[in-house]
Design a protein that fits this description.
Chain A is of the alpha+beta class. Chain A folds into 2 domains: about 5-55, no CATH class; about 85-255, Immunoglobulin-like. Chain A is built from 7 helices and 10 strands. In chain A, strands 1, 2, 4, 7 and 8 form a 5-stranded antiparallel beta sheet that branches. In chain A, strands 3-10-9-5-6 form a 5-stranded mixed beta sheet, with helices on one face. In chain A, strand 1 and strand 2 form a beta hairpin. Classes of the chains: A alpha+beta (about 260), B mainly alpha (about 190).
Chain lengths: ~260, ~190
């Protein structure tokens, strides 16, 4: 008696008439050997089987899973995006409605100086002028506005908000010390003041497992500008003398301390 | 489970480069993928989350190769299962990293059959579960696949057995279902 194995599966995949005939009959009744093989063997039936089995239970809504972050890149254990609590939005909306940007936003503005840059690459609107505000959310849900260079606790989450003079695209990077920048995500930018929000509603950067100096850099590109990762890295590299490169870079530095949420 | 129109539509839009479609796909399919990964009781919650994220990264990267939007969900689930297995295998010193499972190419994962057929198949699976002899295995399968609330780890705790035992029970049952489906494919009742 023949049971399923790798060679039998190959024959079946090739629609070998003898193999098909045999296994069509053989698999019509339970066979522990074949079932054991199928349980551990990877083949195109896996997805179908799982889809079928997982359809047995009542459907869950994605919201119940607490998932708002689309993983477009492999996440590192030490850095996770974390959605802010609902009250953050209210807090932020209220703060901004009443705010003067000069108070709420903590800019390291690189943009305006580049309005007259010599970059003459892609056509399109001028460079984006960009400002960045960062708020730390503690484990208790408390929020505190940060100045660049501020101390933050590793159990806090950084929430980002930007002001852009026009719409475009931005790439968010993190950089620890002298290590190379690491891309955290790509975001559409709208003109005006908005939370940094991508495809995924992403709004926060977890500091879990971090310690020491950490720099967040937002690299913005106007619609006509090339906006690849390579362009963003080039813009970051040219941060000190940006005229030759497209892209507007805004940085925000924090010093992560291990331990619990710092007092406001 | 038949591929829903929403998923199919989101796949089409995503392949055309519409960025919001990725978010939509993630929202629509994450519960299923999370349930699948939750069946691997020996994965820690952190590992399970990593597997889930890695699966989407790979699926989204491979999306341009997907010829049939209706095949997205089974393909994604296959990737997730492979990722979970790879993660578990990496723990073993005997397993070399180079032996990592390769993601399935989309063409090898055909679309699901029409809804009516799927409903019939679901009934068959329910019947198979009902016919299982009363005992721990049946209970495990019911808790995980029918009730769909507990992870394999939680079921292990509830039943007072090892996490790997629960995973093995689920795998064994899955093997049975795969046998049924393969037989149907060979009998020309599905493809």
């Amino acid at each position: 008696m023949r049971h399923l194995d790798a060679s039998a599966m190959s024959e079946l995949a090739a629609r070998d008439p003898q193999a098909v005939a045999w296994f069509r009959e053989h698999l019509a009744s339970p066979c522990e050997a074949c079932e054991t093989f199928l349980a551990t063997h990877t083949d195109p039936l896996d997805g179908r089987t799982d889809a079928l089995l997982l359809a047995l239970a009542p459907a869950r809504k994605a919201e119940e899973e607490g998932a708002t972050v689309v993983p477009l890149r492999t996440a590192t254990r030490s850095r996770r995006f974390a959605p802010p609590p609902a009250r953050y939005w209210g807090w932020m909306a209220g703060a901004l409605a009443a705010s003067v940007l000069m108070v709420v936003l903590v800019p390291l503005v690189k943009g305006p100086a580049r309005r007259d840059t010599g970059w003459t690459g892609e056509k399109g609107p001028g460079r984006i002028t960009l400002e960045l505000a960062v708020v730390a959310r503690g484990t208790d849900g408390g929020l505190r506005r940060l100045d660049s260079g501020a101390d933050v606790a590793s159990d806090e989450v950084l929430l980002l908000r930007y002001h852009a003079t026009e719409s475009g695209t931005a790439l968010l990077y993190q950089q620890r010390g002298h290590q190379p920048p690491e891309l955290l995500g790509r975001f559409p930018l709208d003109a005006g003041t908005h939370d940094l929000e991508g495809l995924d509603g992403l709004a926060g950067v977890s500091l879990e497992s971090d310690e020491g100096h950490l720099s967040l850099a937002l690299v913005a590109f106007a619609p006509g500008e090339p906006a690849s990762e390579q362009d963003a890295l080039a813009a970051l590299e040219a941060d000190g003398s940006p005229d030759a490169r497209p892209g507007t870079v805004v940085r925000f530095d924090v010093r992560v301390q291990s331990g619990q949420t710092l007092a406001p | 489970m038949a591929e829903t129109d929403d998923v199919t539509d989101a796949v089409r839009r995503a392949t055309q480069g519409e960025s919001s479609a990725f978010s939509e796909l993630y929202r629509l399919t994450r519960p299923l993928v999370a349930r699948l990964v939750a069946g691997f009781g020996t994965l820690s919650p952190d590992e399970a989350e990593d597997v889930l994220q890695e699966s989407y990264v790979r699926a989204f990267r491979g999306l341009p190769q997907l010829k049939s939007p209706g095949a997205f969900t089974p393909w994604l689930l296959t990737i997730a299962r492979n990722r979970a297995r790879t993660r578990l295998e990496r723990r073993s010193l005997l397993q070399r990293m180079e032996e990592e499972r390769v993601d399935p190419t989309p063409e090898t994962v055909p679309a699901l059959p029409p809804t009516l057929q799927v409903e019939r198949d679901i009934e068959v699976v329910r019947q198979l579960i009902a016919e299982l002899p009363e005992g721990e295995e049946k209970k495990t399968v019911q808790l995980f696949y029918i009730e769909g609330q507990l992870s394999a780890r939680e079921i292990a705790e509830q039943l007072g057995v090892g996490k790997s035992t629960v995973t093995m029970r689920l795998e064994r049952f899955r093997g049975r279902i795969k046998r049924e489906l393969l037989q149907r494919v060979l009998a020309g009742r599905w493809d």
